[in-house]
Amino acid sequence: MNPADVRLDPVIHAQARLRVMTTLAALPTEDRIAFGRLRELLDMTPGNLITHLRKLDEAGYTASTKTGSGRGTTYVYLTEAGRTAFDQYMRQLRALLEPVTEEGDS
Amino acid sequence: MSEEHTSDTSTPSPAEMLAITERQQQRAERALDINPGLLFGVWGAAWVLGFGELYLTIGDEPVLLVPLWQALGIFFGCLGVAGFITVWHLANSLRGLRGPTQKSGAMHGWSWALAFLGLGTLIAATSRMGISDDGYAMLWASGSGLLVGLLYLSGGALTGSWTQYCVGLWILAINAAGAFTGIPNHYLVMSLAGGGGFLVAGTVLTLRGHARTGPSPSHERLPGEPE
Prior knowledge:
Chain B: Keywords: Membrane, Transmembrane, Transmembrane helix. The structure holds two protein chains of two kinds. By secondary structure, chain A is of the alpha+beta class. Chain A has helices at 15-25, 35-42, 46-58, 80-97; strands at 32-34, 62-66, 74-78. Chain A is built from four helices and three strands. By secondary structure, chain B is an all-alpha fold. The radius of gyration of chain B is 23 Å and the shape is elongated.
């Protein structure tokens, strides 16, 4: 594989969204995190985080559930597709940085 | 592509992106992960001090002359501080999380509370039949050791953690052997071998934690975490 051909997933390949994905991937599978706690771990403004989460939602990488009615807490989590995409992104990123070791690997 | 640049000022190089994700991963893990080294350290200190103090103050020829209520007060004070730090640490780590990890953590926490409630009930019922003060003290000390050993055994089994499992085996063994030394000698066994065992486990886990800090795979799984 020629490293120059690697096309990094544009949905993840942006500083803010990569940090969101990294944080969600640090949670065990099927665990969800409250919007407020996620924002704390990222030091993002609510508006900023909502914007990026919307993009990740649209790509099917993240999803959220809401507890209670009205002003309940929103819990965000990584979907299976999101975890797969993140793992692949990380593999590609590492491959880009270590092109020498990639001989014969697919 | 132009749309990309409206929300993100710039896209750094792959090396910078890798550094960003590693930094964020460390930050998330530090905030979210339960630190078993800290908890073993706290409980180790509580047992060394608490049971050590009981050994020195209780018995026919105590080294230190302290009223029983004060001796027990200091003992439960040590355990109370350790319990407070444990609850504080768990609440901090698990804050804002929902899902299987939080659920099994809560169930495990309740099993500790219920186990000791059960032990208390059993000893209260037994003491109605008339037992000596030493018998009463032995039931509490060795009964607690049995529960702690069993709970670590099952905790280690369910999370696939050999460290926890071995701590459970160790506590069961020294508790069974120590019980034959009687009161107050059993307190010394619980203090040095029990509390000391926790401190060793805490040190091992802390050193192991430091050893694997640094560039790590995309995300390491906790022991026992579902694949």
